[in-house]
Design goal:
- 13% of the residues lie in helices and 57% in strands.
- By secondary structure, it is mainly beta.
- The protein has one domain.
- The protein has a 10-stranded antiparallel β-barrel.
- The longest helix has 16 residues.
Length: 120
């Protein structure tokens, strides 16, 4: 996954699992905060990635979210089970998985078989 797509997945997963309304995510890999805007008023999801100046939008239903990243012109899906999630990045045609534990989000990217961490 591209780093910015992974950040979007982490951000949306954290917002939907925790219910918090944070407007930035800390990327431990890059050592910086990335701002987000928009709204997650289920079933509608509309996120603005301020770093890329593009929208990611979609709908949630039955513990699943299907998103379209307008900056990448690609789809991204997430499915939730408690504080864990799994998904699929159609841009790289690879799955990913992760978990949300309080202020820490972990995303395991099956493209490079690495875990990435994000925080709030």
């Amino acid at each position: 996954m591209k780093a910015h797509v992974r950040r979007v997945a982490a951000y949306v997963a954290h917002r939907l699992i925790s219910g918090s309304a944070n407007s930035a995510i800390y990327d431990y890999e890059e050592g910086r905060y990335v701002k987000f805007g928009g709204s997650l008023r289920l079933p509608d999801v509309m996120v603005l990635d301020c770093d890329r100046s593009c929208y990611i939008s979609g709908r949630a239903a039955g513990g699943k979210v299907s998103l379209f990243d307008f900056g990448e012109s690609s789809r991204l899906t997430l499915e939730f089970a408690g504080d864990s999630f799994q998904g699929f990045d159609y841009g790289t045609v690879r799955p990913f998985s992760g978990s949300v534990r309080k202020r820490l989000i972990r995303v395991f990217d099956y493209e490079d078989y690495r875990e990435y961490r994000y925080g709030f």
